[in-house]
Amino acid sequence: METLIIFLGVFLPVAWGIWRLVQYTKDTIGTNSPVKVKRTYRAKSWTYFATFDNVMLYLVGMIGFFLVRGTFTFHFVPENNAFIGRIFVFTVGALLVGGSLCMLLIDLNHWKYARGVVIETFPERHELEITFEDAKLRLKEGDIVRILVTGQITKMHITYTTFHLDNGHHFILPYKMPGIWVIQEYFKKIPTEFRHKRFPFIP
After folding, report:
1. Cα end-to-end span (Å), the chain
2. Residue 180, Cβ neighbours under 10 Å: how many?
3. Nearest Cα to 20, choosing from 49, 52, 45?
4. Within its chain, how far is the Cα of 115 from the centroid?
5. How many whole angstroms separate alpha carbon 147 and alpha carbon 104?
C-alpha cells in the first residue's frame, strides 16, 4: 500500500505535467492552434488572480506579515543584541510585505485593462476581433503599425503592451491577458520596442 501511494505521488504530478504540455502544444501550434481554428480568449478574475505567481506572492506577503508581527514577540538571544535582531526581522518582514503589496497593486491596475476584454480569432479571414467594455475592434494585416512592451522584461516579466494602430489610435493589454500572444502570432514582423519600467503601472 505504501509503495502504491509513493508511486501515485510521483507518477500523477508527472503525468499531469506531460498532459498539460501536450495540451499547450496542441492549443498553440497544433491542431487547435488559433491560426487554424476559431478560438476565443477572455480574462476571468479567479484565474487572473489565482496564478502560481500570485499564490507565491500571497505566501511571501503572509511570511512578511508574521515576521513583522514577530518583531514584538520573538525572543532574541543574546539579550544585548535583541534590538538589532528586531530591527533586522522587522526590515525583512516589511520588505516582503511591501513587495507583495506593490505587485498586488500592479495586478489590480492591469486588471482594469483586461476586465471584460475578449479576443476572437477568424482564421479563414486571418483577422482578429477584440471586444472591450465600450468598443469592438476588428484587426487585419497592416492595422497594427508598432508595438511597445513596457515593464520588467528581463527579471519578472511583468509588462503591458501598447498596440499602435495605423489610424493613430492605440490600445493596451497587460501581459496576463489570455491570448495576447495571438496578436503577434497573427500579425508577424510588426516593429516592436521594449521599454524598461521598474514599476509597470499603466497610466
Report:
1. 58
2. 21
3. 52
4. 14
5. 25
Please state, in angstroms and rounded to a whole number, the distance separating the CA atoms of residues 129 and 119: 6
Residue 45 Rama label (left phi>0; alpha psi -120 to 50; beta): alpha
Q: How many CB atoms lie within 10 A of CB 175?
A: 19
Q: What is the pTM of this model?
A: 0.78
Chain centroid, CA 159 distance in Å: 8
d(CA 14, CA 25): 17
pLDDT tens digits along 99-119? 999 999 999 999 999 999 999
